[in-house]
Model the fold of this input.
Amino acid sequence: MGTSIFSRIIARDIPADILYEDEHVVAFHDIAPQAPVHVLIVPREEISSIAALNHGHQNLVGHMVLTAQQVARDLGLDSGYRLVMNCGDDGGQTVWHLHLHLLGGRPMHWPPG
Ligand code: AMP
Done:
């Protein structure tokens, strides 16, 4: 088990509002929501960022997206939502454990800033 704050959540060392988990991923509510629905889909494996992905992670990344789709359905985001993965400093990444943001419950704007 890694040492990131998300690994500590996955290990139940620190609390989070977990709404889904399986052998590959855990999904929980973001502590500082940027929309009425803001869920993070996090792999159990502590991969630092998109930049650290390799072809061996293809199924995992696909599973993260399909998990987000299922969570969005479960939460009734029928009129749409946004999936975001920030990568690196310029991408706005602050937690160095790969994660997919699921944002919904309001219209999203573009460009995102
Ligand atoms: P990013 O900036 O893309 O790395 O996103 C990291 C996200 O993790 C931010 O949206 C934070 O609000 C969120 N976050 C940080 N610590 C926690 C925590 N303990 N529980 C839930 N979400 C967290």
